[in-house]
Amino acid sequence: MLKFQMMSSTFALGVALLAPPAIAQTATPADVGQQGPEQAADTGLDDIIVTAQRRPETLLKVPASVEVLSGDRLRAAHINNLANIQEVSPSLIVTQSSNPSTGVFTVRGIGTAVTDRGFEQSVGVYIDGVFRGRPGAALQDLLNIERVEVLRGPQSTLFGRNNSAGAINISTALPNAKALGMYAEATYGNYDAVQARLSVNVPLVTDKLAVSVAVAENYNHGFIEAPNLPRGRTNGRDRQSVRFQLYWTPTDQTRVRLIGDYSQLNDSCCSYLPLFVSDTAATGPFVFNVRGGFIGYTGPTPGTPGVSPSNPASSGTFYRPFDRRTTQDSPSGEKTTDKGVSLQVDQDFGNLTLTAIGAHRRFQSNISLDIDGVNSAVTNVRSDPSTNIRETSAEIRLQNAAGSPIEFVAGAYYFDQKIVDTNLLQIRVKPVATTVTFYNSVGTGTAESGAIFGQATYNLTSAFRLTGGLRYLKEKKTANVTVAPGSFSFPGTAERNDDALMGSATIAFQPIPEANLYLRYARGYKSGAINLLLTSPTIAANPSVNPETTDAFEAGAKFRLLGDRLSTNIAVYTQTVNDQQVQAFNSQTSSFVTLNAAKVRSRGVEAEILYRPVKPLTFNGSISYLDATYLSFPGAPPPAGGIAPSQNLTGRTPPNAPRWTIVGGVSLDQPLSDEVRLLGNVNLRHATSYYTDLALTEAFRNGNTNFLGASVEFALRNGFGIQFWGRNLTQQNAYLSGIGTPLGSGSLSVFVNEPRTYGVTLRFRH
């Protein structure tokens, strides 16, 4: 209640500051510096501008598969962070498991699940041109979003780091130096969800200097019942964010953008739920049986006797994780802070533009996990890792104006990173109040990388364009890991030096201005890595993995038809990943296994359509057909709960790679009177069956899923509005991922998705 009162006060304060002049105005920006819901004079679609090639271009002109999600569309779907963007994107899957900061981004079935902070994503995330080195620095709530570009396939030529599978390019709205502006909203929903957002834009010097400030609060009580915890619930959110921007144009040739942001997270997340509890006695030195070792264990829901799908010799009890109840007796959660500052300067010299971007960021995480996940009367097993990450990056680019006979962009990039990762696993024996340290380590990792790059487009004719680009990268990584005595020995230090040449080549043909046909080749690269999470002697003996490379071929076509009322894009692709970096949890040894999978092939078809038959209605649809296969993966981790030391996954489908994904939606912008507009939105995402863990454990496989979201808003001419919204209205149940229960021989646990959520949002736009 206190949080709701605070948010309501914030909303009221913002409205009070700007309400008097707003009463006589129409509702315009949906966020500060952004355009509101489209109100074109005709039924034509607006041009979609993207920066996928490091310069502003229409989506039609870009010869690559790019999906664009506008800020308006995300707000209509009540999507406030990257973790939920997959609800409206067919080629992107974002999963979170043991904690919010170790999410996994997967594009076209390719992604890296990383718990070890020494490893990086295969899908790079960039916010206003700045690379976010770890998922936790990208999975915060989003503020003042103008658009999100999902770039499919390798993007290693023009983007800074580690884009072997794709990139997510996020652009926020620039401050507006022409007019005062404000956006405020307050939300209340089920699970005691309360959210508030306030953005204010202030011109300091008309047409020259402006600042904007955005703040957000996001809280809910949790959607998993936890009767043994003090709050009675878990898997809740408690997040705050603030973002400051200054935009200065001292001359027509000079543009300066300063950004500072800070966010903190204190989520009670993420609890895994028992799916199968085995009766089998433990056999290894690192494990003991859940039912036998955790005396006093009782299931969270009525159980059904059965046999493990991973080991027919293992009998036990199946539980219902989608009842969303846990018996854990110790809280799980994560506290993070993410902060940074960036400065971008653009200077025009006639036909040339010089761009310089510098950024410094810090990320800190403290995690607390109830590893056993049950209410044992004898023991409590906890893991309490912490991470500190410092990143400094700099990029300089020189490019000429679009429309030149030869269009080019060339530049250099520098990245420096330091990670300090502490891992502590303890077993607390309750009757005698004794704590036994199972594992304790401190790992320090560094990465220093430099690259030069360039891309040029030669306009052979007004219709034919040839584009080629190259990037040369050199990188050094070091690691120093100290393991507490009594665990196992480790040499202490490791180092690797990598260099790589990557590039792309494209031929594009525009027979008419409304069509673009293209062929594209791209080579992607992700640096090698060194483990900082050495949980077993096997990993300690070989802590490093090789770089990951991707070769991708793509053919596509883009059209604007029916007098700009219809936009269609289609792409056919095939790509091969060599030495894919993968990580999995081995419940037999209670350790993470990190290795290079030999080879993965991903091929398929992607298509999008945007159609506005009449002014009030806009239809959108996307479809992805994906055929992903491990071409060679011997020695893969065993399925969770299995007894074999390894398995051969050659010929199998990787995780998070549904064969078909279809996203469809319709939006409505209909005036009801001179004073009121009706804004409606419905979106549906259908995906066929897919695995959720690297070992392809059958018990963790999702069936067909259907997620439905909808919203209705009444927007008043004076700037006020009220929106009723719902997400997962179909109450679709799905696994996010699954693991062999730590320290529970043969048992299986899962992380589950959010249930149906709904609420009401009050808005004010000026």
Automatic annotation (TrEMBL):
Residues 60-167 form the TonB-dependent receptor plug domain. One of its GO terms (cellular component) is cell outer membrane. One of its GO terms (biological process) is iron ion transport. Keywords: Cell outer membrane, Ion transport, Iron, Iron transport, Membrane, Receptor, TonB box, Transmembrane, Transport. It is a multi-pass membrane protein. PANTHER family: FERRICHROME IRON RECEPTOR-RELATED, TONB-DEPENDENT OUTER MEMBRANE RECEPTOR. This is TonB-dependent receptor. It comes from hydrothermal vent metagenome. The lineage of its organism: unclassified sequences, metagenomes, ecological metagenomes.
